[in-house]
Amino acid sequence: MEPEAVESATVGVEVVNSIRERTIAENSMVVLLQGLQGEVTTVDLRDESSARGLVLNVDAFMNIRLKDVLFLDRRGQTAQLQDLFITGRNVRYVHIPDHVDIMKTMESQLAKIHRVRNFAGEGGGRKEFGGRKK
Amino acid sequence: MADEAEQQPSTNTVEEPLDLIRLSLDERIYVKMRNDRELRGRLHAYDQHLNMILGDVEETVTTVEIDEETYEELYKSTKRNIPMLFVRGDGVVLVAPPLRVG
């Protein structure tokens, strides 16, 4: 079973299932990109090409999955792609849509992570980080 | 800066290089990037990887063309404006206040 099956089933299904990824994401600004799931954005790649499409998913390593993509390669040729996976290392820029409120998006993503972390019964009733004081 | 409340009390002392960037939050800054690129924009957010959110940003890409006959170097720059940009930290070379001419 695909590890990502849960979160890519519907656009905007929330937090990653791995503790490690949650921690990495929580401590960096990737959370903002994760909050862009469901938005149409342009991603500029390191090799000067760009991809504009609907963000399906962004993981803690900035790997991005896009849907219904217009891909502009370095030489200016366009291609229509149904599904595109971009490795985090190859991202140079992500254009943030004008209507996105950055602080709110980051706060709501962090709240989701904290909700998952504090969910009773996760890990057999143990807290994710034992006895951590806020 | 993603989780300010838990990680970093808003202290005014400058302890490490990243604190210097913190002083530039909400100010216009100049960012030199790899591949002869420069950004000028308002710093909204950053993290320890130097991933940054810049607003009202102008990107300048500089290219050098060499004339075949005279071997003269011709510097060309292309600019574009983007309202809000997320920049991946591994492309950042340096961060500075905007350069003032003269």
Automatic annotation (TrEMBL), chain B:
<dbReference type="Pfam" id="PF01423">
    <property type="entry name" value="LSM"/>
</dbReference>
<protein>
    <recommendedName>
        <fullName>U6 snRNA-associated Sm-like protein LSm3</fullName>
    </recommendedName>
</protein>
<dbReference type="GO" id="GO:0000398">
    <property type="term" value="P:mRNA splicing, via spliceosome"/>
</dbReference>
<keyword id="KW-0747">Spliceosome</keyword>
<dbReference type="InterPro" id="IPR034105">
    <property type="entry name" value="Lsm3"/>
</dbReference>
<dbReference type="GO" id="GO:1990726">
    <property type="term" value="C:Lsm1-7-Pat1 complex"/>
</dbReference>
<dbReference type="GO" id="GO:0005688">
    <property type="term" value="C:U6 snRNP"/>
</dbReference>
<dbReference type="GO" id="GO:0071013">
    <property type="term" value="C:catalytic step 2 spliceosome"/>
</dbReference>
<keyword id="KW-0694">RNA-binding</keyword>
<keyword id="KW-0539">Nucleus</keyword>
<dbReference type="GO" id="GO:0000932">
    <property type="term" value="C:P-body"/>
</dbReference>
<keyword id="KW-0687">Ribonucleoprotein</keyword>
<keyword id="KW-0508">mRNA splicing</keyword>
<dbReference type="GO" id="GO:0120115">
    <property type="term" value="C:Lsm2-8 complex"/>
</dbReference>
<dbReference type="InterPro" id="IPR001163">
    <property type="entry name" value="Sm_dom_euk/arc"/>
</dbReference>
<comment type="function">
    <text>Binds specifically to the 3'-terminal U-tract of U6 snRNA.</text>
</comment>
<dbReference type="InterPro" id="IPR047575">
    <property type="entry name" value="Sm"/>
</dbReference>
<dbReference type="GO" id="GO:0033962">
    <property type="term" value="P:P-body assembly"/>
</dbReference>
<comment type="function">
    <text>Plays a role in pre-mRNA splicing as component of the U4/U6-U5 tri-snRNP complex that is involved in spliceosome assembly, and as component of the precatalytic spliceosome (spliceosome B complex). The heptameric LSM2-8 complex binds specifically to the 3'-terminal U-tract of U6 snRNA.</text>
</comment>
<comment type="subunit">
    <text>LSm subunits form a heteromer with a doughnut shape.</text>
</comment>
<dbReference type="InterPro" id="IPR010920">
    <property type="entry name" value="LSM_dom_sf"/>
</dbReference>
<dbReference type="GO" id="GO:0071011">
    <property type="term" value="C:precatalytic spliceosome"/>
</dbReference>
<dbReference type="GO" id="GO:0003723">
    <property type="term" value="F:RNA binding"/>
</dbReference>
<feature type="domain" description="Sm">
    <location>
        <begin position="16"/>
        <end position="101"/>
    </location>
</feature>
<comment type="similarity">
    <text>Belongs to the snRNP Sm proteins family.</text>
</comment>
<keyword id="KW-0507">mRNA processing</keyword>
<dbReference type="GO" id="GO:0046540">
    <property type="term" value="C:U4/U6 x U5 tri-snRNP complex"/>
</dbReference>
<comment type="subunit">
    <text>Component of the precatalytic spliceosome (spliceosome B complex). Component of the U4/U6-U5 tri-snRNP complex, a building block of the precatalytic spliceosome (spliceosome B complex). The U4/U6-U5 tri-snRNP complex is composed of the U4, U6 and U5 snRNAs and at least PRPF3, PRPF4, PRPF6, PRPF8, PRPF31, SNRNP200, TXNL4A, SNRNP40, SNRPB, SNRPD1, SNRPD2, SNRPD3, SNRPE, SNRPF, SNRPG, DDX23, CD2BP2, PPIH, SNU13, EFTUD2, SART1 and USP39, plus LSM2, LSM3, LSM4, LSM5, LSM6, LSM7 and LSM8.</text>
</comment>
<dbReference type="InterPro" id="IPR040002">
    <property type="entry name" value="Sm-like_LSM3"/>
</dbReference>
